[in-house]
Write a structure and sequence with these properties.
By secondary structure, the protein is an alpha+beta fold. The relative contact order is 0.20. The termini are close together. The longest helix is centred in the N-terminal third of the chain and has 15 residues. The strands form two sheets. It has an eight-stranded antiparallel beta barrel, surrounded by four helices. The protein has a two-stranded antiparallel sheet with strand order 1-6. The protein has two domains: about 140 residues, Arc Repressor Mutant, subunit A; about 160 residues, Alpha-Beta Plaits. The protein is about 35% helix and about 25% strand. α2 crosses α3, α8 crosses α9 and α9 crosses α10. It comes from Streptomyces milbemycinicus. InterPro entries: AsnC-type_HTH_dom (IPR000485), Dimeric_a/b-barrel (IPR011008), Tscrpt_reg_AsnC-like (IPR019888), Tscrpt_reg_AsnC/Lrp_C (IPR019887), WH-like_DNA-bd_sf (IPR036388), WH_DNA-bd_sf (IPR036390). This is Lrp/AsnC family transcriptional regulator.
Length: about 350
């Protein structure tokens, strides 16, 4: 939950919501195409986009699909002394191999995702050496993410719902893989172009670094960052997107959608029913992330609710009815220091508003 939220000074209308939904469907869609679908002018869409960026932290970020990019993801829980937790969280947010840095459980716990090449040796440096040696840490647990049921390329439903089925069909890029596609490396690519360009290479590093900053960076600026020609950049983007190796996410201050209460839910589920329960939870409107992990709890979820009462209702009426969930730990999220892209400085406050932060 962002500190100093702008929700009291900024109200989303249908155009804003349609723009956010459109960017989830195609983060690089031209404003002219979005405008045609929304029935407004290109200038209106561009103006709303700039306003949302400044006042609501809206940002499109380009990210590699971990499975196709050969990456492992570790969900790391770090218990720290309250005096050291915020400084440690800020330090973790600055690392290029982390995302999703959150302060939880009264500010004495940090939760982060660590990205590493697949293989135990590749993940040892941070998980087993750097973190335990840091002052102020009292406990560390690392959970390998085994399967994501909701999250990543699949957006939280709270960001969707503004566009009709026909509007969505007009916005989905032709290079997008079908949602039901098997993400295993053995699944056939959609075209010879995707077959040739499906894997990330060292030469893609500069491209991805630029897209993590801003997924809508122009071909010309991406060419300057990579040393490629704009035509090569365009071909590479097309190939990576067509196979699903690259996807685009949208960062946004969810308080503007009425979210005031967030929590991480750590669940232990009977293994024989893990897939059934996780699939069911992925359909719950309150959840933005559902993933299977290793560890004493084998399922984690991220809940977004309007207030504590709504969270209580969800826990007791929805999760409470699922007998396969043997244990449940609820950890309130107090602050997100880093989402999926690179961290940014504080947003410019509006006149009369507080000082919103990422």
């Amino acid at each position: 939950m962002a500190d100093g939220s702008v929700r009291d000074t900024y109200t989303l209308d249908e155009v804003d919501r349609g723009l956010i939904h459109a960017l989830h469907l195609d983060g690089r869609a031209p404003f002219s195409r979005i405008a045609a679908v929304l029935g407004v002018s290109t200038q209106t869409v561009a103006r709303r986009y700039r306003r949302l960026r400044i006042e609501a932290g809206l940002r499109v970020v380009g990210l590699p699909d971990p499975h196709r990019a050969g990456q492992a993801q570790w969900l790391v829980r770090i218990a720290a002394t309250p005096a050291d937790a915020q400084a440690l969280a800020r330090s973790l947010a600055r690392r290029p191999d982390t995302s999703w840095v959150k302060l939880a459980s009264g500010g004495a716990e940090i939760v982060t995702v660590v990205h590493a090449p697949r293989g135990a040796d590749a993940s040892r440096s941070m998980l087993l050496r750097d973190i335990p040696r840091t002052a102020g840490i009292t406990a560390v647990s690392a959970h390998l993410l085994l399967h994501t049921y909701l999250g990543g390329p699949t957006a939280w439903r709270g960001h969707l719902g503004a566009l009709s089925d026909e509007q969505q069909r007009r916005l989905v890029p032709p290079t997008a893989p079908p949602p039901e596609a098997d993400p295993s490396p053995a699944s056939p690519p959609t075209s010879p172009l995707a077959q040739a360009d499906r894997a990330l290479t060292e030469a893609d590093r500069a491209l991805l670094d630029a897209l993590r900053q801003d997924g809508r960076t122009s071909h010309a600026d991406l060419a300057a960052a990579t040393g490629w020609s704009p035509a090569t950049v365009a071909r590479r983007l097309t190939g990576l997107r067509e196979y699903g190796t690259l996807f685009f996410d949208v960062e946004f201050d969810d308080a503007l959608l009425g979210v005031t209460t967030q929590a991480l839910l750590w669940m232990a589920v009977a293994p024989a029913r893990l897939d059934e329960i996780a699939t069911a939870l992925a359909r719950h409107a309150e959840l933005a992330v559902v993933a299977a992990t290793t560890g004493p709890t084998n399922l984690v979820a991220h809940a977004l609710c309007s207030d504590p009462a709504a969270l209580h209702h969800y826990l007791t009426r929805h999760l409470g009815s699922l007998d396969a969930i043997r244990t449940l730990e609820t950890a309130p999220v107090l602050h997100t220091l880093k989402a999926t892209g690179t961290p940014r400085g504080p947003r410019r406050p509006r006149t009369g508003a507080g000082t919103p932060t990422e």
